[in-house]
Amino acid sequence: MSMVTLPGLKDLIENISRERNLPRIAVQSAIREALLKGYERYRRAQNLERKQFDEDYFENFDVQLDVDDEGFRVVATKTIVEEVTNSDHEIALQQVQDMGGDEAQLGQEVVLDVTPDQGEFGRMAAMQTKQVLAQKLRDQQRQMVQEEFQDLEGTVLQARVLRFERQSVIMAVSSSFGQPEVEAELPKREQLPNDNYRANATFKVYLKKVSQGQQRGPQLLVSRADAGLVVYLFANEVPEIEDEVVRIVAVAREANPPSRHVGPRTKIAVDTLDRDVDPVGACIGARGSRIQVVVNELRGEKIDVIRWSPDPATYIANALSPARVDEVRLMDPETRQTHVLVAEDQLSLAIGKEGQNVRLAARLTGWKIDIKDKAKYDYAGEDTKFAAARAKYTPEVDDLDEEEFDDENQEELLEEEIFEDNNDDQE
Q1: Of all residues in the chain, what percent carry a pLDDT higher than 70?
Q2: Parent domain of 57
Q3: CATH no. for residue 176?
Q4: Neighbours of 355 (CB within 10 A)
Q5: 54 and 12 within one domain
Q6: In a 3-state reduction of DSSP, which class is residue 253?
Q7: Whole-model pTM?
Q8: Would you say 301 and 311 are in contact if contact means Cβ atoms under 8 Å apart?
């Protein structure tokens, strides 16, 4: 069988494998596919008869790579027929028999060497091969990253700052000890305002998404602003959470406030079924030791740990910590609207700077919270207003239902009259 030689093939595979962190078998597969595309380009250039080559015309062709002898062969799988109409896909029975295939039969398939001469595989085909090889290697890398990190979505990884692209930080992450590093993107919206992203600085990041497809750039999207990072840090620092004695019920985080005058803040609701365990105290730790580790990792972000309660009023009052709440009025449970009454000196604390405290409490509890000054609150007026609003949206009973209701009443009255008449007769 003929062979097109590729001097230095073995070293090429080794170098690519080492530089791109790809197994040698993946590199060989990419080279085979690239050479096949190069052969296809060569055939199209040699198409003097102007044949119509469909997209899948060359699917019966393959490349056999010989790493030891540093070369390759092109083979084609052809069907044995009586009379050939397409020499690329078919071969005559007589020709196979002349080649020594005496037992060959019509309809069988044979693999034949169709390797072009060394000189015929021209410069254009070589260029095509080089371009396709670069693309195939990128595809191989993306597939490897996809397989390696797919199951790690929603977990926290250690990352190292590599460089900056526009407003994004490009970081290096690895899936486990001993695995090569992979690039990940930390976009501007996922960064923390107090972080200092200098070269080679290390951070814990939340793996938010593993992108598929062929877009350029890193396919790992990481975050420092996601609430999942806070959950991980507490679970890692508080043994009671890891042991499932304490559970995190809800988290509301504002890592990038709308105003630069307001700092990042998180509210986290915790609970336990063990009466002997204080879930808030477990998360804070002795003298604040546990929560301080989390705060340091988040570069000074304020964190409120509050006790979850199945009673909405209690839960809402806790969520507005550190403000003292006098009363919580659940005005409309269906639309989850509530009025929270506080003393005048607690108003600004309950609302928070630029509304941050009440905004996070509303997100944490799922209730629309309206902070009111208790001294100026009009109980009767607010009750009347909500009652009127509920009546406005209460569907009216239709005429048919009213008729049915009247008929049922009449039947009941008639039965009562008959019963009374029978009693009179008996007397």
Answers
A1: 87
A2: 4-140
A3: 2.40.50.140
A4: 14
A5: yes
A6: strand
A7: 0.68
A8: no
As a whole number, the mean pLDDT across the chain is: 85
User: Which CATH number does the domain housing residue 375 bear?
Assistant: 3.30.300.20
Q: Say yes or no: 415 and 379 in one domain.
A: no
Contact 254, 265 (CB under 8 A): yes
Region 16-25 average pLDDT: 81
Q: Which residue has the tokens 């009767």?
A: 380
pLDDT for position 400:
42
DSSP H helices, 238-272, are 239-242
Stated as kind and residue range, the H or E segment containing 185 is: strand 182-186
Residue type, 76: A
Say how far apart CA 328 and CA 168 lie, in whole Å. Answer: 44
Cα 229 to Cα 168, 218, 298, 417, distances in angstroms: 19, 21, 9, 74
CB-CB neighbours of 65 under 10 Å: 17
Residue 415 token pair: 């039965």
Contact yes or no for 174/182 (Cβ under 8 A): yes
Q: How far apart are CA 393 and CA 408, in angstroms?
A: 27
Token pair recorded at residue 226: 């996601």
CB 113 within 8 A of CB 75: yes
- Which of 140, 170, 186 is at the close of a domain? 140
